[in-house]
Amino acid sequence: MTDHGGSNLPGLDDEDEEDRIVLHVDIDCFYAACERLREPELRGEPVVVGMGYEDGATHGAVATASYEAREYGVESAQAISTALERLPRKATADDPDTDHDPAEAGYYRPVDMEYYQSVSEDVREILHDSAGTVREVSVDEAYLDVTDRTAWEVAEGFARHVKQRIDREVGVTASVGVAPNMSAAKIASDYDKPDGLVVVDPDEVQAFLAPLDVEEVHGVGPVTARTLREMGVETAGDLADADPRELEDEFGERGRELHRRARGADERDVTPRGRPKSLSRESAFTDSTTDAAETRQRVTTLAAAVAERAKSKDAMYRTIGIKVVTPPYDVNTRERSLPGPVDDPDLVEDVALELLEEFRDDPVRKVGVRVSNLQFTENDQASLDGFDASRTDGAGDADTATEPDDARQESTGDDPDPSGQVSLSDF
């Protein structure tokens, strides 16, 4: 196992065809990290994202808790009433009529799915730019097959570069695991959270896994771990040494799969989860700018890049939109629907610039251009006759972002996700 420095992005001509290089990228406390983007003063403070803590609410649950909040015993999926007992709200602790110590209180924020998905799109852009094959498994984690981008000798530098881009360009922190297969990479990314980077070389996988608690094996959660311990299996090494027939008797074919994973074997390919529902390009300014000409030029460049990307994927689109991020981190989206699917780079630029006019006098931190409602068939392109009329009545304008690619949590069997964050689909 490797866990040390390095910062150069490798560029290589040779690659080892025998050993895949898989990255698992997991954003630390993602929802809380997003809230800190919007409110920088929350950095270093205990933050709880959830529902039901507002005055008059009777029930609710924690979606995620920052590491600072976890020190008070607040956990994901916990009843909000329990969380409030362990970590009172800062707003109520500051009330002179309460007995709470403000120093022992935290900040509570409601779940804002649209905002989190918007930040997730920023991360996904970096991941897709870093790897030819990306499997998105939730709003805050993905697998990357980078076998054709780097080699084991410098895989750590490659992974560190991805981490640094996410931190620098998006402003959230990722933990990254690097291994020759998906399950080992997942375990590696969890190994040194938060802000971890762990590389497990191909010849070190079994040695890395062996001493870990059996619950660390990808696919083993509290329920399965309890049964395994009753069978005398305490560690991943014990699971690797167990009789696969006994495991199959107890868990069915899943028992043999867990046995293989404990031995470091996982033959699954990193495969994308269906075609994308949207394509986008974004760019951040070094400092917020009020230069409308500079912003328009940036949007023009992004529009051309998005249109080219759609063409390369043989995709037509029915919707064109922009994203404008204004200080401190207010995400504004606008979009316009077309009468039919098109492949028209000039139209992407024209619509994007028209939508941008609304923000001419605003300071801008970041801009993005997006095409969505994609169509990949060979159907004839719709005529644009009458398009001008359809876009001047405002009926196609929307003040919300379109739905991102399916990013629901990938199942690991009968046990809940151990990442410390509840899936957005639960809300």
Which key features would you list for this structure?
single chain; 427 residues; alpha+beta; Alpha-Beta Plaits; MutS, DNA mismatch repair protein, domain I; Dna Ligase, domain 1; 3 domains; five-stranded mixed sheet; four-stranded antiparallel sheet; 12 strands; disordered N terminus
Task: Give an overview of the whole structure.
The chain has 427 residues and is of the alpha+beta class. The protein has three domains: 22-29 and 116-262, Alpha-Beta Plaits, CATH 3.30.70; 31-112, MutS, DNA mismatch repair protein, domain I (3-Layer(aba) Sandwich); 278-392, Dna Ligase, domain 1. Helix content is 34%, strand content 20%. Helix 5 (113-130) packs antiparallel against helix 6, helix 11 packs across helix 12 and helix 13 packs antiparallel against helix 14 (345-356). It is globular. The protein starts with 21 loop residues before the first strand and ends in a 35-residue tail after the last helix. The relative contact order is 0.13. The model is unreliable at 3-18, 379-419 and 423-427 (pLDDT under 50).
Layout of strands and helices, then pairs:
Layout: E1 22-27, H1 30-38, E2 47-50, E3 62-65, H2 67-70, H3 80-86, H4 90-93, E4 107-110, H5 113-130, E5 133-138, E6 141-145, H6 155-169, E7 174-179, H7 182-191, E8 197-199, H8 205-209, H9 222-230, H10 236-241, H11 244-251, H12 253-262, E9 278-289, H13 292-312, E10 316-326, E11 330-342, H14 345-356, E12 364-375, H15 387-392
Parallel strand pairs: 2-4, 7-8
Antiparallel strand pairs: 1-6, 1-7, 2-3, 5-6, 9-12, 10-11, 10-12
Helix pairs in contact: 5-6, 11-12, 13-14
